[in-house]
Amino acid sequence: MDNNLKIQIAKDLLSIRAVFFRPEEPFTWASGIKSPVYCDNRLTLTAPEVRGHVEEGLASLIREHYPQAEVLMGTSTAGIAHAAIVGHILGLPMGYVRSGAKDHGRQNRIEGRLEPGQKTVVVEDLISTGGSVLEVVDALREAGAEVLGVVSIFTYGMRKGLERLAAAGVQNLSLTDFDTVAAAAAEEGYIRPEDVERLLAFRDDPSDESWIKGGRA
Predict the structure, then answer these.
(1) How far is Cα 51 from Cα 43, in angstroms, rounded to an integer?
(2) CB of 92 within 8 A of CB of 69?
(3) Cα 177–179–181 angle (5° rounding)?
(4) Which of 2, 111, 122, 202 is most exposed, with minimal Cβ within 10 Å?
(5) Over the stretch 96-107, which tens digit does the pLDDT of each residue have?
(6) Is the peptide bond before 77 cis (omega within 30 degrees of 0)?
(7) Kind plus residue range of the DSSP H or E element containing 60
(8) Phi, psi angle pair for 155, to nearest 5°
(9) Where are the strands (E) in the chain, listed by range?
(10) How far is it, in rounded angstroms, from Cα 152 to Cα 143?
């Protein structure tokens, strides 16, 4: 992974506030966990220059690491547009995987043509605990696809996510990660340099809220 690209994408995401940090006023996730970071990579779609960097970056990851890819499958819904654009760049077919099967029509969960044995790359916007993307991988494997791996825009690098992906035999390649974005945020003045350690403490163990009071327990 090109470190210059990781830094470029990190700065891109910060510049459009697709990722921004608020350690003094944490966000609350649906799970109840307090988080110093907010991530909405859908905003890349409405920022043409950043979108160009992201899609070319994802295409480069696939060219380099999964050159045998035959079809791209986006996660629903955030990965769909990225899979479509990257598929266009690479001249590959794409489809997407629903979070659940439709309750009408053909009751498809996988949309688009997928042949048994096809070499498939999953396109995701971000990876946290890995649960959502692994559900997609499972659905594709059940349909007979050979899942080569995952490409994504951003990963938190949380231990739980890394362990779950490894246990499932799934490789994820992200354009940038939490550590790189935190370092860029400090460099660019979005947060104080002394906040970086607090952010990494959150990354290490999101359930431990000691970072809110200023650092590791």
Answers:
(1) 9
(2) yes
(3) 70
(4) 2
(5) 999 865 444 445
(6) yes
(7) helix 48-65
(8) -130, 140
(9) 19-21, 27-28, 34-35, 37-39, 71-75, 94-97, 110-111, 119-127, 146-155, 172-177
(10) 22
Dihedral sign for Cα 5, 10, 12, 18, please: positive
Which tokens in the block code for residue 199?
């952010």
Mean pLDDT for the stretch of residues 17-26 = 92
Please provide the size of the chain in residues: 217
Q: What is the mean pLDDT of the chain?
A: 92
pLDDT confidence bin for 32, thresholds 50/70/90? confident
CB 136 within 8 A of CB 122: yes
* Chain CA centroid to CA 33, Å: 19
State which amino acid sits at residue 65.
H
Phi–psi pair at 124, nearest 5 degrees: -125, 155
* CA 179/CA 67 separation, integer angstroms: 28
Q: What is the DSSP letter of 95?
A: E
- Give, in degrees to the nearest 5, the angle at Cα 53 between 11 and 120: 120
d(CA 67, CA 59): 10
What one-character DSSP code corresponds to residue 128?
S
The residues, any chain, with a CB within 8 Å of residue 114's CB and separated by 6 or more, are 71, 73, 95, 120, 140, 143, 144, 145
Calculate what percentage of the chain has a pLDDT beyond 70: 94
User: 10 Å Cβ neighbour count for 93?
Assistant: 15
